[in-house]
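Running this now, will post back.
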Amino acid sequence: MAKVMLTLKLDPAHASLEDVMRKLDLADGQIDRDFGVVNVDPQRQLYAISVETVTAHRLSRRPEVSGPYASPKIEPFGPVH
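Update: finished.
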């Protein structure tokens, strides 16, 4: 299934994957553990997560969540040196 990114405002002390899963009531298969919780703007305490599209639509109604945003696979173009 396709994954998208969401951003959310978090207290840095509670920005672990387990904290986010608990806060957003997410099960193991609903969040991309390999992506994790990425700090995208430390000054605004803004973090990104990657979730299934269906999950993103449910979570996007929450006030601390923004998105969904596209999350295309990034690959090299041409030969890698």
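The beta strands are 3-9, 38-41, 46-52, 65-69. More later if anyone needs it.
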